[in-house]
Write a structure and sequence with these properties.
Mean pLDDT: 90
Shape: elongated
CATH class of the largest domain: Alpha Beta
Helix content: 10-25%
Number of helices: 5
């Protein structure tokens, strides 16, 4: 029997620097001739892991939101731009460059749950309008602080007279550009992000990723990751009349605990089931 989800899954794309996440996904859509979506936007200057959902796999995005992400980044100190990265208009330059010891002394303040103000040139919404659109129009943009989680920051090396490389583990919604600004601010100066590579996003890692140039209409299915592999959850498997009832939106008596389960029909992944009060039903369907 053909797998129910043979055309739904994830491609672990290595997005190159210089193109938007949307443009990278558009290429996958043209190759697959299926709906596609991405999780965790990377700015055009950034590169690295960009999970792309093919077919109905995007229905699982909510189960992937809280995964750890790992970035390598380069911050240039003594320079400030309006975008907080190297693509923006320079606002200040020639400011003081802190020592490695000064920076290391401040990093512990940015580990754990912190409040971070997103860059004004970002996709954050202000009264229904993207902040970057308002900023480009020269309008004043005020964004509220947002709680994010930083698992760790390590200064890995000095890569230039005014530049340092960092490795950062964090949760979703973290702006690395804002970290550059805030770490510099703690050292009494300014900084911009000049390079960013996402090395990991939950299940997806850079070493297992594929570049857009490697994918063709003939081989993309070989790089499709089965949707049930990318997140952890207990599973249940039904067949026969029980499976048919769940397919039809009906519920079954269930002796397991309350919670969510990966749902299989005769070993084929179907979606997510939710159990509550001795009853289980399909809550997310991939077919």
């Amino acid at each position: 029997m053909e797998n129910l989800n043979s055309k739904s899954g994830f491609i672990n794309l290595n997005k190159p620097s210089g193109i938007s996440s949307a443009a990278a996904v558009a290429k996958i859509k043209r190759l697959t001739h299926l709906p596609c979506g991405h999780m965790g936007t990377l700015d055009p200057m950034a590169s690295g892991v960009l999970p792309v959902a093919v077919g109905n796999a995007s229905r699982l995005f909510n189960y992937l939101l809280h995964k750890e992400k790992i970035y390598s980044a380069v911050f240039r100190f003594g320079v400030e731009t309006d975008t907080l990265d190297a693509t923006g208009t320079v606002l200040q330059s020639g400011k003081r460059v802190p020592t490695e010891a000064e920076i290391n002394d401040k990093l512990h303040n940015f580990v754990g749950e912190i409040v971070q103000i997103p860059p004004i040139y970002s996709a954050k919404s202000v009264n229904g309008v993207r902040a970057y659109r308002l900023a480009r129009q020269g309008r004043e943009v005020t964004l509220e602080g947002k709680k994010v989680h930083i698992g760790g920051i390590v200064l890995t090396e000095r890569v230039g007279e005014d530049s340092f490389a960092f490795r950062i583990a964090c949760g979703g919604g973290t702006y690395i550009r804002s970290l550059a600004r805030d770490i510099a601010g703690a050292c009494g100066t300014v900084a911009v992000m000049t390079a960013l590579v996402r090395e990991k996003s939950g299940y997806f890692t850079l070493k297992d990723s594929v570049s857009p140039e490697e994918l063709t209409e003939e081989n993309w299915e070989e790089r499709l990751i089965a949707p049930d592999l990318v997140f952890d959850m207990p599973s249940v498997d039904f067949d026969g009349k029980e499976a048919q009832k769940l397919r039809n939106g009906l519920s079954l008596e269930f002796g397991g605990g309350d919670g969510e389960y990966k749902l299989y029909f005769d070993d084929d992944f179907y979606g997510i089931a939710k159990a509550e009060g001795g009853i289980i039903r399909a809550s997310v369907k991939l077919v």
